[in-house]
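To close the section, here is one more complete example, presented without commentary so you can practise reading it yourself. The ligand is protoporphyrin IX containing FE.
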Amino acid sequence: MSLKKLTMKQHTNAERQKFAGVLMSGKISDRAYLRYLKNQYYCYYALENNTKFNLPDDRLKRSEKILEDVRELQHKLYESNRDMADALTESTLKYGSYVDTIKTKEDFMAHVYVRYLGDLRGGQMISKKVPGSGKYYEFDEPEELANTIYRNINDDMADEAKKVFEFATKLFVEMGSDERKSLLEETPTDGYALMTGC
Ligand code: HEM
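Output:
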């Protein structure tokens, strides 16, 4: 087997969420994507600043790159930094605490697999559809980095990997739960709404 096969059900479930469709629609609003990025920043920051475990290669690190994308969109939307924490969802905050409780290198690697290989693979499709310059998805030597992840994983990590998918899917649910479609996707009236602050 492989972790890919062992977590296929979880991956399919994530892809079926409404927010996955919005991300891939090419129409996600700057605001909705910015909110998503802020949550991703927090999750990656937690992993990359873990006191016990390190990523297998520093070039995988995403938090600074996500922050650059956040700054770009904040600038575009005239938003200040103080709104950063307001965007964080329940699942993101829980994930941050959860990461601090990881006890083994194997469990930590399951997180690296789900997040960073996801970015190296499916993330490359998503990057073409989202606002901004997408530094989040730019990797030096992506194949070398993917192989480093493959070398460090095994099938015994499946249970922990499923938990990571659960957190990521919960974020998709939270992001997609805004009933006002116009907040998720761009509409022709957005320019006017922005000018008037509606
Ligand atoms: C918009 C939603 C998503 C799309 C469109 C998407 C798409 C894809 C695609 C096309 C691949 C490559 C599949 C292949 O190699 O055959 C992939 C791989 C992967 N994705 Fe996603 N994905 C999405 C969401 C997620 C989420 C939420 C996660 C977890 C945080 C995730 C984690 C992964 C992982 C770990 C792989 C690598 C699997 C492997 O080769 O072992 N994906 N994704």
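Once you have examined the tokens, check your reading against these statements. The chain has twelve helices and no strands. The chain has one domain: 29-178.
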